[in-house]
Every structure is written in C-alpha cells, then in structure tokens.
Design brief:
- This protein is an alpha+beta fold and about 150 residues long.
- It has a single domain, classed as STM4215-like.
- It is about 25% helix and about 35% strand.
- Strands 1, 2, 3, 4, 5 and 6 form a six-stranded mixed sheet that branches.
- Strand 1, helix 2 and strand 2 form a beta-alpha-beta unit.
- Helix 1 crosses helix 3.
- The chain is elongated and about 60 Å long.
- InterPro entries: Phage_JBD30_tail_term-like.
C-alpha cells in the first residue's frame, strides 16, 4: 500500500478541471522554487496529515481520514493595497477546484469533502487561497495480533 496514493489521481482531476492555463503542483514540484519565482496562476496540492477514524488493530483494519490542501496561487500586483485584482483572479480558479473535487471519490477512497482551511494570505506579490479537503481510506493488512 502507498499511503499517499491519492496524490496522483487528485492531481489529475485538478489538471482536468482547472484547464491548461493553470498549473497544478505537488510538494516535490515546488522543492527548491524560490518564493518570487514560483509559476502562477497555479494550484498547489499538499498532503496535510491524517487522523484515525475507526478500526480494529487486532483485525488489521483501519479507517484513516486524510487531509489535503489545494492552495490557489496567483500573482497580480494591480491594486496591491486592496488585493482586489488578485482575489478576482483567484476566485474563478477556486470555483473550478471546488467543482472538480467536491463529492468526487478517488478510487479506493470516500468522496472528497470540503474542510476548514487557514486564511488566505499575500507574500511577495502573490495571493494564496487555501481550500482544505478530507477523504477516508480503508486500510487492511494481513498482519494480525496473535494471542
């Protein structure tokens, strides 16, 4: 089992949903990219952890809820003080992300559900708008505790 196996199908779903003009990146894609040189507009897909939901350790079974963030990144320096231009550019991309993922179930997982996310932010001319998602995986193993 690959614990992060959902990354590839989620990325593919986002790429199809946001169109060719918006790039979709995962953490390895962004490794080494300087803050001021990152491509935009883009959607960053980031694994943000898990929590056990249910299971039976002796039976080799667990339900795990994973959290994924989709962070819309745009660079727009017009109206920097208000951020209006950047928000206007990020809004339709956010809509496409939500339309792509909300209720969609990656193979082997439950439907993606929207979840609480951190605040949007500005940095070095970029506007970042995070949207958080959860999904659940059923994990089974052949290993069972012996009595």
């Amino acid at each position: 089992m690959d614990f992060l196996e959902l990354e590839a199908p989620i990325k593919a779903r986002l790429e199809a949903g946001v169109g060719e003009s918006v790039k979709v990146f995962t953490a390895p894609d962004l490794d080494g990219v300087a803050a001021g040189n990152r491509p935009a507009p883009a959607v960053d897909l980031l694994y943000r952890g898990y929590r056990p939901k249910d299971g039976n350790a002796a039976g080799g079974f667990a339900v795990i809820e994973q959290t994924w963030w989709t962070v819309i990144a745009v660079r727009n320096r017009r109206h920097v003080a208000s951020g209006n231009a950047a928000r206007a550019e990020a809004g339709p991309i956010a809509g496409a992300v939500i339309k792509s993922l909300l209720g969609w179930a990656p193979t082997g997982a439950k439907a993606m559900a929207i979840a609480p996310a951190p605040q949007a932010g500005y940095d070095a001319g970029y506007f970042y708008l995070p949207i958080a998602w959860t999904t659940q995986l059923n994990v089974r193993t052949d290993a069972c505790a012996s009595s």
